Amino acid sequence: MFDKLSLDVKHSMLNSLWLSFFLVAFVYACVQWLFGGNLEIFSLMVKAIFDSSKLSLEVALGLVGILCFWLGMMKIAEKAGLVDALARLLSPLLTKLMPEIPKNHPALGSMTMNIAANVLGLDNAATPMGLKAMQQMQELNPNKDIASNAQILFLVLNASSLTLLPVTIFMYRAQLGASDPTAVFIPILLATSASTLVGLLSVAWMQKINLLDKTILLHLLGVAAFIGTLIWFFSALPKELQSSYSSFLGNFTMTGVVVWFLLAGFIKKVPVYETFIEGAKEGFEIAIRILPYLVAMLVAVGVLRASGAFELALDGIKWCVLALGMNADFVPALPTALMKPFSGSGARAMMIDTMKTYGADSFPATVSAIIQGSTETTFYVLSVYFGAVNISRVRHAIGCSLLADLAGVIAAIAVGYWFLHD
User: Fold this and answer.
1) CA-to-CA distance for 237 and 290, rounded, in angstroms?
2) What is the distance in angstroms between the CA of the first residue and the CA of the last residue of the chain?
3) Which of 117, 269, 290, 367 holds its CA 20 to 30 A away from the CA of 347?
4) Closest C-alpha among 398, 368, 362, 358 to residue 381
């Protein structure tokens, strides 16, 4: 039921976007032909269709190995109880943030499992637990068609997408030739922390949550101390060393996580090799499953770019940015930001297109990757989760989620300039 609902919502949102790419490209190409005498424009668009289709296949197949590895490691983490442990760590905070939910209610367990899975990058485990949490909270909701405070806070936290292991971003960067795929680790961590913090504060303001409560304050101070330490450490480094240390911490963290998962599995007497193989088998299936989405979106973006309409829009934005006296090097990364609230596959296609056009190590491509890792697909998440429990009045959920998105994008651009711009 939930899978069908998710697909229905996703398809309805993508239909207009996908169709508009082709229509805008065709109309702009006709203008160039009729008024500019450009007889090659349609040839370029057809070539873009073939080139983008080929790129989609190369990207999907190139992801098979790394997907198999990380899904195998994540399966070990699940069976070793690491998700449960993180959920127990988050439970006291959620209890204070959502006082209308009784202590020890099943909804708190489902929510903490969902957030813990998101933090560890376990998307497949996160969504079912999130939908279950929404159902359980709906049972406590006195107005069944109006979103409760707890449901709104939970959805905003999901939409802000706090992820400590942005493995998929690293995978795409590696596949498209980045010299150091994990160089964006610290920038993504800072940007996603900013989006989550703004989302939480905006909901707290609307719902008059007492952020001075001891439990809440300790958690917030802990996060603030961690982020502040990172900012202080990197601020003290020379400019030329910031990217190198971000890369080091990213690679160290990834290696440490692998060892942590394996040791936790061994200590819990999990058959680590067999469990790894069980999870890795899903890698090929997922890579093949994303291929149609990659083809659809990359071809649409490729045609739009080949027609010249894509560059025309970016040039317009660039002109506005320059008119404000700002550096406009980040502008080619903005399509990812504009697409992200509506479509995860569309934003991914924009990121890949930016990497392919400018190079995976270019400034626009790295900023695009940071943006991709800083927020979630807001409208899709809200539609699926609220649709699952038939809520029609979402109150301040959209406003707070979009504010978190905006904070994530601004933070992504800012840390991109801080770490990666010459």
Assistant:
1) 40
2) 50
3) 117
4) 398
Give me the DSSP letters along 167-221: HHHHHHHHHTT-SSGGGGHHHHHHHHHHHHHHHHHHHHHHHT--TTSHHHHHHHH
Taking the domains of the chain in order of start, what are their residue ranges? Answer: 2-420
CA–CA gap between residue 300 and residue 172 (Å, rounded): 19
* Segment 319-332, tens digit of pLDDT: 998 998 889 899 99
49's torsion region: left (phi>0), alpha (psi -120 to 50) or beta?
alpha
The residue with greater pLDDT, 421 or 204, is 204
Length of the chain, in residues = 422
Q: What are phi and psi of 81, to 5 degrees?
A: 85, 15
Alpha-carbon distance of 316 to 150, in angstroms, equals 41
Tokens of 286: 């997922």
**Whole-angstrom Cα distance, residue 200 to residue 153?**
7
Spell out the residues 6+ positions from residue 406 whose beta carbon is closer than 8 angstroms to its own.
198
Cα angle 310, 316, 320 (rounded to 5 degrees) comes to: 145
Task: Return phi, psi of residue 188, to 5°.
Answer: -65, -40
- What are the pLDDT digits (tens) for 238-277? 877 777 787 788 788 878 888 988 999 999 999 999 999 9
Distance CA 126, CA 158 (A): 10
